[in-house]
From TrEMBL, chain A:
InterPro entries, per the entry: ABC_transp_permease, BCAA_transport_permease
Transmembrane segments: 15-37, 44-62, 68-92, 104-124, 144-165, 194-215, 270-290
Family, similarity comment: Belongs to the binding-protein-dependent transport system permease family. LivHM subfamily.
Top-rank lineage group of the source organism: Bacteria
Lineage: Bacteria, Pseudomonadati, Pseudomonadota, Alphaproteobacteria, Hyphomicrobiales
Principal subcellular localization: membrane
GO molecular function, a single term: transmembrane transporter activity
Protein name: Amino acid/amide ABC transporter membrane protein 1 (HAAT family)
TrEMBL record, chain B:
Domain of life: Bacteria
Pfam families named among the record's database cross-references: BPD_transp_2 (PF02653)
Name the record gives this protein: Amino acid/amide ABC transporter membrane protein 2 (HAAT family)
InterPro entries: ABC_transp_permease, LivM-like
Length: 293, 339
């Protein structure tokens, strides 16, 4: 009993809560990716790179042009939304009838393009906003305001998407298309338009995530690699296209990373998360919430 | 071309390749050739499973294991690479089995397979970085210079020696490719890539066939990693493992042509020459430019030329060639919509 209490100390609680806070942003990323997968049936391997560009946009607007953070954020979201729509229009739309693997690899090519574009345009320096938000002390535990803000904003973003999907006509059409691609075109829904809107929405979510992540992490051209793979794993673990599954998986992953990081290095947290993912794929190949066939 | 003519062409080409370093000795150009041969071998290994629709992004992991296990055994245990390379290959093979068996058993295909293998290369990269006390982490790792027998340590100073070794390894890869191409396994795997259920109904052991080709591909990729490490004598997690390396393999194989034996080699020639030209032309300003061009090319190729340069070229040369196999036809449709 005593040993148990030794482990279950205040640091553990702190790690658990930090995990939940991290989970918020991951869930937001997973939501965007799931949305695109569920509706268009395409995996954007380069999703995290869109976030990276958004982070650069925030950095330049806030640092160079002195725009205030809250003014810059909507512009960034809009910019990444446009990028998402452009990605769909230029790369995915010509490949819609191609084998899914080709679509996936094409976005892999876009990943290279975006990464090296950032390297060429912005250099490989680590940059940060220079905004240092205070740290909230609660008992012996410390939480950064940046994380709390991200968590809340991510939740708000997710609720907004939920309302959009359930309360508006376009949202209903998007959900309908994700259920049956062929029929909806016959029902008089312009699938091309819906695809574009969905891509823009996915991009907007990436933009929101960028605004939040830029508060916590430095920007560099390869920053996408540090959370991109995790996002895909979350989506697959939750079942590609399954919003609720992705939401749960995001928090599971965040907890594993956070707790793994508590007992050892952060890398081991990631290793644990990856290993957990592979094991889960064997137990539940079609995602956490999938019904057994 | 008749079978004999083809064989003669291969023979003459090979003789020319073997004779090359004795006639032409520019060390820089030989260095580029060695790199091309080693990477060609790695890309060929990837395309062995890639051509059957088993798109793996985990090969960066296998390559990293090949390189790091060999180097670690040499530095820490003093084990000669002659023993270390088989061990590293076995390690990569075991990992491929551990991940591959459940994947194939539970029918994890398409996107899911790609993402599971993506996790695999992610794990290998993170483990190499996390065990930085042994592997040097992201700063890279250097195998100790041999004090005694160079042959035992598989370390040679001469570029010519390395050129011949790389040539032999590359040739081995091409031979294995043809061996698979002529085996029954090819037909089984093509059937699987078109329709798993139908293949299973026709008596193909889906799981076993997929596992065999995955194992072969992983072993060869690990060998490529080990040879690369022995040649360069310096490895970092980013150059031999991780998702970027995996994507690089996919890219080169697709640009060259996935369905022909020399396709990945053509891909390696194009990518490496491109990178070197940009590096020489622009110097340090070129950082990033090579990948930018890669990425644009990859997207363009997948949209307009999914069979790759060599594949499309061969098709054009032989219009009366047999009807393309269904999974290739599917890819061809992108190039000519409406057909």
């Amino acid at each position: 009993m005593q040993t148990f209490l030794d482990i279950f100390d205040i640091y553990l609680l702190e790690a658990v809560i930090n995990g939940i806070l991290l989970g918020g942003v991951l869930a937001l990323l997973a939501l965007g990716l799931n949305l695109i997968f569920g509706v268009i049936d395409v995996t954007w391997i380069c999703y995290a790179e869109l976030v990276m560009l958004g982070m650069y946009a925030m950095y330049f607007m806030v640092q160079y042009y002195g725009v205030s953070y809250f003014v810059a954020a909507p512009f960034t979201i809009l910019l990444v939304a446009v990028l998402g729509a452009a990605l769909h229009y230029l790369v995915i739309a010509p490949l819609l009838t191609a084998p899914p693997i080709n679509q996936l690899l094409a976005t892999g090519g876009v990943l290279f393009v975006l990464q090296s574009f950032a390297t060429v345009a912005f250099g490989i320096d680590f940059r940060n906003l220079g905004i240092r938000l205070p740290v909230l002390a609660f008992g012996d535990m410390n939480f950064s305001y940046a994380r709390l803000l991200s968590f809340v904003a991510a939740l708000v973003g997710m609720v907004a998407v939920y309302l959009f999907m359930t309360r508006t006509f376009t949202g209903t059409a998007i959900r309908a298309i994700s259920q049956d691609r062929q029929i909806m075109a016959l029902m008089g829904v312009d699938t091309k338009r819906i695809y574009l809107i969905t891509s823009a929405l996915g991009g907007a979510l990436a933009g929101l995530a960028a605004c939040l992540l830029v508060l916590q992490y430095d920007v560099h051209p390869f920053v996408g690699l540090s959370f991109g793979p995790i996002t895909f794993l979350i989506c697959v673990l939750g079942g590609l296209g399954n919003f609720i599954g992705g939401f749960i998986a995001a928090f599971l992953f965040a907890e594993i990373i956070s707790l793994g990081g508590l007992f050892s290095d952060l890398e081991w947290g990631y290793v644990l998360a990856f290993a957990f993912f592979i094991v889960m794929m064997f137990i539940r190949p079609a995602g956490l919430l999938a019904r057994r066939r | 071309m008749t079978g004999q003519g083809r064989l003669a062409a291969w023979g003459i080409g090979l003789a020319a390749l073997v004779a090359l370093p004795f006639v032409y000795r520019d060390p820089y150009h030989l260095h580029i050739l060695v790199l091309i041969l080693i990477w060609s071998f790695a890309y060929t290994s990837w395309s062995m499973m890639g051509r059957f629709g088993l798109v793996s992004l985990g090969h960066g992991g296998f390559m990293g294991i090949g390189a790091y296990v060999t180097a670690l055994l040499w530095n820490h245990l003093g084990l000669s690479p002659w023993i270390g390379i088989p061990i590293s290959m076995a390690a990569a093979g075991a990992l491929a089995m551990i991940v591959g068996y459940p994947c194939f058993r539970f029918r994890i295909t398409g996107h899911y397979f790609v993402l599971v293998t993506l996790a695999l290369s992610g794990i290998v990269l993170q483990v190499i970085t996390a065990t930085r006390d042994y592997t040097g982490g992201s700063l890279g790792y250097t195998p100790n210079r041999a004090s005694g027998n160079k042959l035992l340590a598989l370390q040679f100073d001469g570029k010519t020696t390395w050129y011949l070794i790389a040539l032999a390894v590359w040739l081995f890869g091409i031979v294995v490719w043809h061996w698979v191409d002529r085996s029954m396994a090819r037909y089984a795997l093509e059937a699987i890539s078109e329709d798993e259920d139908a293949a299973a109904a026709a008596g193909v052991d889906v799981t076993a066939e997929k596992l065999k080709i995955t194992l072969l591909s992983a072993l060869m990729t690990a060998l490529a990693g080990a040879i690369y490490c022995q040649y360069q004598m310096f490895i970092t997690p980013d150059t031999v493992s991780g998702i970027a390396v995996s994507l690089q393999m996919v890219f080169a194989a697709i640009v060259g042509g996935l369905f022909v034996s020399l396709g990945p080699t053509v891909g390696a020639i194009i990518t490496i020459l491109l990178a070197e030209t940009l590096r020489i032309g622009f110097g340090t300003k070129a950082v990033g430019w090579d990948n930018l061009v890669y990425g644009v090319l990859l997207v363009i190729f997948i949209i307009f030329l999914p069979k790759g340069i060599l594949g499309s070229l061969l098709d054009r040369l032989k219009p009366q060639r047999k009807v393309p196999r269904a999974h290739e036809q599917e890819a061809v449709q992108i190039a000519r919509p409406g057909t």
